[in-house]
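Below is a typical protein record.
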Amino acid sequence: MAIASGAAAIGQSRAIVSALEAIGRQPAAAPRIQVAMIIGLALIESLAIYVLLVALIIFFANPFIKYVVPGA
């Protein structure tokens, strides 16, 4: 989970840096770049939330317990 959170943070920071560089090069295209950046950030954040969801399911529901603990 920590790896996925770190990867999501790195991905978001690279997306923001790229968007700011693009806006710096072409200020007239700022609205289109901003919209694309926000959509991309939302997709990256949803991936991080899915990782959290899977981790919580494995931690609390533990569907693999019958393979780990005999007789469970």
Observations:
- DSSP finds three helices and no strands in the chain.
- The two ends are 26 Å apart (CA to CA).
- Helices lie at 2-25, 30-61, 65-68.
- The chain has a mean pLDDT of 89.
